[in-house]
Design goal:
Elements (H helix, E strand, L loop, with lengths): L1 E5 L2 E4 L4 E8 L5 E9 L6 E7 L4 E3 L7 E6 L4 E6 L8 E9 L2 E7 L3 E6 L1
Parallel strand pairs: 2-11
Antiparallel strand pairs: 1-3, 3-8, 4-5, 4-9, 5-6, 7-8, 9-10, 9-11
């Protein structure tokens, strides 16, 4: 299974970006899809997730600004990021967990988001 994330870039504070992630080669039912990020010099953190029963999670700092959506049939995941802040600067990674790999899932290569003040 390979995940390809795209959509990162340089944007000014207050701007918007839309991240996309496409999984290929998966044949197992998807349990959840998520975006994580790793800010410079910090640990990776969960940003938003969506499960197949439509439970959605956002970390507090992105609530009201980010919207996660996905299609488990097409194995695609999106993250609409509005009103970006310099603190959102990070490498963003997509992750999917399937029934065959429910514990750690599969990871994409990451896409860099840089928000300038």
């Amino acid at each position: 299974v390979q995940l390809q994330a795209s959509g990162g870039g340089l944007v000014q504070a207050g701007g918007s970006l839309r991240l996309s992630c496409v999984a290929s080669g998966n044949r197992d039912p998807i349990m959840s899809m998520a975006w994580h990020r790793q800010p410079p010099g910090k640990q990776r953190e969960l940003v938003a997730s969506i499960s197949t029963n439509d439970n959605i999670y956002y970390r507090d700092s992105v609530k009201g600004r980010f919207t996660v959506s996905g299609d488990d049939v097409k194995s695609t995941l999106y993250l609409q990021m509005n009103n970006l802040e310099p603190e959102d600067t990070a490498v963003y990674y997509c992750n999917i967990r399937t029934t065959a790999r429910w514990n750690v899932g599969y990871w994409g290569q990451g896409t860099l988001v840089t928000v300038s003040s």
